Amino acid sequence: MINVQDLKIKAEILPLFDRSLNIYAKNQILEILETPLKSKEELILRQNILKGFISNHKILREYSYPVLYLNEVYDFLASAELEDFSEQKLKFKFFTSRSKKGLYTSKLNQLVIFFYKLEAHYFSWIDLKLFPVSYSKNISRIIHFLKGFDLDKNEKVVREKGLKDSEIIKLSHLISKLSSKETFSLFWNDLFLFEAYLAISISVVQNEFTFPSFTDKSLNLTKFYHPLLENPVKNDLNTRSNVIVLNGPNMSGKSTLLRAVGLCMYLGHLGIGIPAAAGEIPFCTEFSIDINRRDDIHSGYSHFMTEIINLKEVVKSATDGNSSFAVFDELFNGTNVEDALEICRVTINGLSKFDNCIFFISTHIQELRDVSNPKISTYHIGCKLVDDKPTFTYELKDGWSDIRVGRILFQKEGLYDLL
Known about the structure:
By secondary structure, the chain is an alpha/beta fold. It has helices spanning 9-17, 23-33, 40-55, 57-60, 67-77, 89-95, 98-122, 133-147, 151-160, 165-180, 183-206, 254-268, 303-319, 337-351, 405-412, 415-418; strands spanning 2-3, 213-215, 220-224, 235-238, 243-247, 278-282, 286-290, 324-328, 358-363, 376-386, 389-398. It is elongated.
């Protein structure tokens, strides 16, 4: 179960990491963002891959090329009209039309120039020892592929006098040979994954994200925040239970804080760094982040029924022994107060028995403060009165909030007198 649409991965999180040069690498980044890894070993491997890119920053920080060059070479190598002129040299030299020969030569020139830039400016300088061995093989494949085009020699020829018929025939034979082995597909896959990792690593450095370590149960975040906020308040969180109840009035910033926690957990499970100064997170296989959910018009469910169905899926997954991370924002606020109080109590106490899971629940039902369970901890968002006006500090604090914002605002607007 991966229910993270409320994190708005494509609309809000992708732009944080998308420093790609082309649509192919961008699609790779999106695929990475939408696919949590399935083991701690995979997570640590990806972290180390990105650390390898960061360590090669001096070489790769200027990595770029005109996208037009890439598109032209990509389309050329994907063309069904590729020919091996080595078997028909005379035909190419004497019977191929000038326009066709000129077009083919132009595309080969572009290929040589583009591949030469990749090899000479970037790939030949990369320190492969800084990457995990399993991934350095991918980069080695790219380097081996590029070297096969004898780029030092051919780039000089293209630049000084242009490719001759014999050189064109030789290159056409090489291209045909590689095409028959599906080597182009492997090369592009390797290159676009390389560029996706490079874009992510640049974002990790520029946003000052950190790579978390993994614990068995506890969730500890230092100075975490939501990266889309312009001037975020950074908070610390050290869980001492598997159910965390976040309380306080509306407008206090509960939903934003839950998004920040959820994002740290989710990005941590992609192996790509989190918006925090440091982090220790438990490894989970299931995610359900339910924030500001509205009625599901398409299925006909009300807001309350949508919550019920979502909760049932989370509980069934936890019952099956899965390690789950779930967020419930303003749980059961779609039903009457009496029902909400009763079933929130049952839910909070019931979820506490799943020791291998972590659940965050936000609420403004003050009566829930009488729930006594050592597996449940409570936090609230700081609020203070300034000139009789509630002012939120957005700082995470232990315990329950005692500020009743609704009553204060009601009174401040004079409605007690007017009514």
